[in-house]
C-alpha cells in the first residue's frame, strides 16, 4: 500500500502491484527512476530494474510465499517448486541467486523457515512436533538441530526467552 501510494503521489498510474513487483503505464527516464529509487529507500524498498535482479526477487517472493503463507505442511521439493513457477532450470536459478545475493537459495530458504518457526514458537499454539511436521522436517530433532545451527539457541530456550519478555496486562 505504501508503494502504491508513493507511486500515485509521484504521478504514476499503477497497472498492477504484487509482492515485490509493480507495473506502471509510464516509462520513466533515468532522472525519474533515481528520484523514485530515493523515495522507495525511505520506505525500506529498492528499485530493481534489471532482469537478473527481478528474477532473484521473484525467487525470494516464491520462497517467502511458500514458507510463510502455505496452507498445510511444506511437503514441496524447493527446486521442483521454483522450476514449476519460473521458466528456468534450477541450476541457472541457483547460480544466478548466488551471484546476485552472495548466498545460496537453500540458505535463504532455511533462514525463512527458521523465521517462520520463531513465529510459531512465539504464538505457542503448536507443539514442536506439530511445527516440525508443518515446516516439512522429518523429525523434531532435525528441526532443533537446524534451528540451533542458525540461531545458536534451541527451540525450547528461544521459546523460554520470548515468554519471559512478555508480561500479562495485569502485571503492567
Features:
Arc Repressor Mutant, subunit A, 172 residues, mainly alpha, two-stranded antiparallel ribbon, single chain, 9 helices, globular
Q: How does this model look, in words?
A:
It is a single chain. With 172 residues, the chain is mainly alpha-helical. It has 2 domains: 1-49, no CATH class; 51-172, Arc Repressor Mutant, subunit A, CATH 1.10.10. 63% of the residues lie in helices and 5% in strands. The chain is built from 9 helices and 2 strands; from the N terminus they run H-E-E-H-H-H-H-H-H-H-H. It has helices at 2-9, 30-42, 51-69, 78-85, 90-101, 105-123, 128-134, 140-151, 155-165, and strands spanning 14-18, 21-24. A two-stranded antiparallel sheet has the order 1-2. Helix 6 (105-123) crosses helix 8 (140-151). The relative contact order is 0.08. The mean pLDDT is 88.
How much of the sequence lies in strands comes to: 5-15%
State the helical fraction.
Answer: 55-70%
Note the gap between the termini.
34 Å
| Averaged pLDDT | 88
Return the CATH architecture of the largest domain.
Answer: Orthogonal Bundle
Report the uncertain regions: none
Q: How does the major sheet shape up?
A: 2 strands, antiparallel
Fill in the CATH topology of the largest domain. Arc Repressor Mutant, subunit A
- Report the radius of gyration as a whole number of Å: 20 Å
Number of helices: 9
Strand order of the largest sheet: 1-2
What is the H-and-E element order? HEEHHHHHHHH
**At the first level of CATH, what is the class of the largest domain?**
Mainly Alpha
The CATH superfamily of the largest domain appears as Homeodomain-like
Counting DSSP E segments of at least 2 residues, the number of strands comes to: 2
Q: Which word captures the global form? A: globular
Helix and strand composition category: mainly alpha
Q: How many structural units, i.e. domains?
A: 2
